[in-house]
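User: If you would, consider this record:
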Amino acid sequence: MKTGHRVAAVGVSRSLVLRAVSTMLISVVLLSTSGCAPPVSPQTRTRPRVAVIREKPGAARLSGIGSIRGYAKGRDNTFMHCLELILEAMGERVSYDELMGISGLAFRTQFRVDRWDVGNPDPLVGETCLDTLFPAVGWDYTVMIVRRDELTETESLRRVIRKSIDRGVPVLAANIIPPEDWGIITGYEPNRKWLCRSYNRGAERVDRPATGWPTAVVLLTAKKARPTPRAVHTASIRRAVMLFEKRKSGAHALGNKAFDFWCQELRSAREHKYIHPNFWTYIGLIDARGAAVRYLRSIAKEFGPREIHVTMAADWYDKEVRLLLGGLSNVPPEGRFADSLPPMEMRNRQIDILRQAQTYERDAIASLKKAI
């Protein structure tokens, strides 16, 4: 078992997005362009809704956890939306856009250099966003990974998850209803089954028995003092700049270099298996930059006379989102080319779009540098 604040790449954030590309396009357009959704107050305290319910011996479940919105609704990062729901149930309303912004995930682009990886957009993989995120929302946390055939460690994992449920704290878990997206463990049964919420298999609104073993869990372990919003927001702007200018984190290229590697790998792709990681990395980029637009516009006034630079950065990211959405037809999902590679002409068009997006990002970062 591994505990701590960092975790190796676990290949998370896999999704079933093949089912609704056209619906997703319409939904993301509505959420990500020209003014976007009305900004939610980024951090507010409410009365906790979560309660421990014990209806039979050896079982417990948590009530008061909101429904998962699902894909194509402006919350495609499964980890961040599940955390949003957990915090809200516990009386800490922190919006999805705020979580994406203060963690840096709204601004991070990364691309694994040694293979195509569907986990590129995941906040635990590569340049982790959790070390920044959890102090900003006022929580200590622990990451755990365990193989199911390691019996001693498996029982240890069961105990810590049960303990968290017993004290009224839901648990973030990957792969509880495959494929390997993030979900929420909301209870346990006498038969050693978990109850959970997930993006998959109809578990968005109701608790269902888990069908997979968690490949990773994140436990919220202790509440702590939260920094002031201004301090957190200023730090997030600095982190946005760092994430674009840093060249590499482990096996992943970051920021400006990530675009370079991505384009390079598109040119040289020879195997069909690249299609889904490419598609999901692209969708993750759209979702992240849509969140960046909304986040920056919601905090701009905090920067006084430098508000204009934050707003200009948001405008550049908005241009990027529009560009990426317009080019989505050049980034096919797996089912569109079941037995063949997309033609080189299509890949070249995607490369041209990514290069233009890279230029917009340079302009956005130049504006953010003037805000700090």
Summary: Residues 118 and 280 are 6 Å apart (CA to CA). The radius of gyration is 20 Å. Confidence is low (pLDDT under 50) at residues 1-30, 32-40.
